[in-house]
Each structure stands twice: as structure tokens, then as C-alpha cells.
Amino acid sequence: MDIRYWNKDVETADVQKIRHLQLQRLKSIIASALKTPFYSRRLPSVGINSPDDIKTLDDLRRIPFTMKDDLRQNYPKGLLSVDTSEVVRIHTSSGTTGIPTVIYLSAKDLDAATDIMARSITATGAGRTDILQNMMSYGLFTGGLCMHYGAERVGLMVIPAAGGNTKRQVSLMNDFRTTVLHITPSYLLHIHSKLAEYGVKVGDLALKKAFIGAEPHSEGTRRKIEELFKIDAYNSYGLSEMNGPGVAFECVYKNDLHLWEDAYIVEIINPKTGQLVPDGQEGEVVLTNLIRHAMPLMRYRTRDLAFLHIEPCKCGRTHRRLSRILGRSDDMLIINGVNMFPSQIEEVVMKIPEVGNNYQICVEKDGALDRLIVKVELYSKMFLGEAKQIDNLKSKIGEELKASITIKPAIELHEPGSLPAFEGKAVRVVDTRPKL
Amino acid sequence: MKIKQISIFLENRKGRLYDVCSLLGKNDINIRALNVAETESFGILRIVVNKPDVAIKVFKDADIVAKITDVIAIEVDDRPGGLADILKVLADEDVNIEYMYGFVEKSSDRALMVFRFDDVDKAAAILKKHNIRIVTEQSVREL
User: Fold this and answer.
1) Are the Cβ atoms of A387 and B65 closer than 8 angstroms?
2) Which residues on chain A are in Cβ contact (under 8 Å) with B11?
3) Which residue, A57, A123, A128, A255, is the most exposed by fewest CB within 10 angstroms?
4) Which CATH fold would you assign to the domain A335-431?
């Protein structure tokens, strides 16, 4: 096995040393947090008025959880600890309704995040001679840019291909002899289904590895990808709120994801009670970011369900491994790697006067990709009698949804009373994708 | 001049057209002209009936999405070129036809066609000017 380290001292440090580092960094984050409007109210309310009030790591648990809703309610600047002149980058992600959430990075924060990304890439054995085709979307989403920066730091040649345009993606792979892909697993499978059409064989390409993430997938999906492309596929985990991909990454042993504990404190809780569950037991991942000061975030409820491995990894890294993501403790949908909440869709469709009372969100598999269908009822009084009106209405709903959730779903218009009505807790989401 | 057409929004569901037609039958309403504009996921059924005001109420009570629109029914000579003559007049006068369809039966030796124009009043005036025969609401009821 080709075991490479980016920062061997930290990656293989003994547990005591990691905990000590965590404590020092936590104190420093507390100092930054006390400068934010949000935490400067919240921390004193639990008796934390200075970093010195944190004596041990157990004191972290005195701090209440920070929820996605806290981020929304404090949008845009409630969690900012510095003047915007200190900020070099922002990213946003979709909130549960129209209000997004935002993260801020200072130059130092970005440097630290890039370093963690570089460490993740190196753990897979990728290095300077590799050519990375980064097929995650660039822009407000963290997936594209954060991987890009990390890969440049390691010294890979980066092709900033972003998502979409499958034919061009395959040409790029072929022309530049791409060795590593960063991509969602569903899109990678979709590409395979297109190769024959483009007259390209897997053997023509130079692929060796894929970093797959941004959507939960099973071990079976990974194996399928590996067999179809004859490559190694590494699972990655991250979320915008924690700086994007690279929170946890698989090493060459591909035995679940090392969570970089010098950069993040991980807790696994029972989502109902908020109590810690023992190591090895499934629960909700709660993360404290130790490397971002411009916008501190502590005990953030990710809503992702996973568990921690206790046994050490053969690669020599001491950072505990996070299982693949097993599900969500909320109703967030992940459609081809794009996160969205049913409430966002509801907010858009219910604002359109031609739409009646009921709607339904259907998610299904269309080949390797996910397909989102939004079904709404036509409000009879608004019907003008023309097919043109219905076609225009469908495009309008599609466009407005795209503005909110970034992807354009298929729209179906139905007659009033034909979709399941509000009766107690209506089932608004019908997800027929195979379970993990 | 103008007659009432009923447009009905139908989702693509088995038996839906039957539902609508049987509802008309039960209420003793006779279909005079009919056309379906279909797309992948829905259809618009357009009908001219002998009792449009009763029909629209029946549909409303049954929660069927329906809307009355004004159309013009024209008598077309039943001979080669009959329809073309009328279309030439309309084209020369710059009248835009949105869609058209035929009646179920014809009156004497003339065929009956339903026309939907973007400007119904303008179209009616032009047809009159050229002595093209327009079917009245009254005669539709009596057909």
C-alpha cells in the first residue's frame, strides 16, 4: 500500500495529543465566537464569558447545539466575528425556506481549510503527477472551489470542469488523460451509461481514482463504480457549514472516512434526546469547526446519520473514522448531489396564483440519475381555457423553482382533488429511489 | 355572432374523457362539436354543446376545471375549395386563427366549423363584410 501523509505528525498523533490540540483550538474559537452577535448572547447564557471558562473538552457540552435555523435567523451577518474587510470568501447553501445560510472565511481560515483538503487528497494516494477533473459545481456551493484549492496545493493538475455537459466531460478526460475525478456517484454512473454513445471505452481513459461524495451512497454503489471503471473510489464527506468537502475522507484502505479531529470535534448524538451515543452506535453527526474564526460554528447539528469506528486503521492515522452517511434526521432531499428541503418547494409553488392547494414532490431514479417531479393542482378559477396558458404556467413554475433550489424539476399539472389532500400529516414527498 | 365553447382541463388519466362525456349525457346535454388538444401530460377538451350554461354548472359542481371561451361557428360550402375560400379571406384581412375544428353534423349542404380567433370581434366583422355565414347561438341550440 502506498501510504502518504500530508502532515504526518498531526495525522498520526496519539489521542492525548489530539485532544490537547482540540482543547487549545476550542478556546481560541470561543474567543472568536464571543465577538459574534449570535454567540455573544448564547455563550454567556450558559456561563461562558471567556475562553478560560472552558477547562476541559467536556465543557463543550455546556454549549447548546447550533441549528440550521439559527444560521437562517442570523443571516447574513449574525455569526460573523470580524469586519468583512478580513473576509476573503463566502459560500452559501440553501436553507429550509427561501433564506440561505452563509459561511465566511478569512485568509487564514481559507488556508486552514485548503490544508485539510490537501491532507484528504493525499490520504488517497493522489499526488503531483495526478490530473484531477473537478466535476462538482463551482460557485456558491463549496464542493467545487474547496476541492480545487486543496488539489492545487498538493500540486495536481486541476481541470475545473464543473458539472454537466457529459460529452465534453468525457472529451476532457480523454484529451488531458484525467486520472482522478471529483464527482457525485450518480453522475459517474450516468457517464458510464453514455460512453458507448460517444464511442469511448473505459480502457481508452486513464482514470485511476474517483472522489465520490455530495450524496449518500451505498457500498454496493461504490463497488459498482470501481468495477465499471476499473478504478478506486473514495468516499468523501463534508458540508458547506463546515467548509465543504474534506471534513472526513477515506484513505487508501477505503474502510470509511477519517474525520480530521484536529480540525473538527465530532459528537454523535441521539437526534431525539440530544444525548451522546456510545462510539460505534448510529446517531446524528454534530460538528464543531476548530479552524474557522471568521465565522465560528460550534456543536452544529448536521442532521446526517452515521457512526464512528473505534478500531484503529491500518494506515496509521489516529483520527477516528466516520461511517458512510446512513440517512438524515430531517426531511432534506439530495437530488443528484444538490440539497433541498420540501419546504423550499412548497414556498415557491404556493405563491403562484394558478396553483391550487395541493402539491406532491416525487423523486425517482431515471437510469443512474435522480429525477425530481413536482406535481401541482391547477386552481380552477385561474384556468383560461387555453393549452398555451398551461404550458406557460409549467415553465413559470419550473423557472421559479430553479431560482430557489438551483435545479429545474419536471412539472406536472393536475386537476383539483387528484393529489393526496391535506389530511393530518400529508405525505408530500414520494421518494421511490432504492434505499441504501 | 359568437357562440360559447367550453374548454376543459383534463389530466392524462384513464377514463377521464369518459367521465366528462358521461356527465354530459346524464344531464341531457348534447355535444355539437368536439376537439382535444393534447400534450404529453394533459389535454384540453373543447366542446360546443346545446346547453353551455347548464354544462358549465354541471362541471363546476363536479370539480372539473372548465372555462367558457368565445368562438365563431362558420358555415362552409361542402365542395372542394370551400374551406380554402374562407381561409383566403381571413389571411388577406390579416386575421389570426388559433385553432379550428369541425362540427359533428352538418347543416344542409354546408359543413360547420368552429374557429377560435385571437380577436373574435374583428374576425366576426370581417366575415360579415365578406358575406360568410356565421352560425348563431340559437341555431346551435336547435341543431
Assistant:
1) no
2) 412-415, 418
3) A128
4) GMP Synthetase; Chain A, domain 3 (3.30.300)
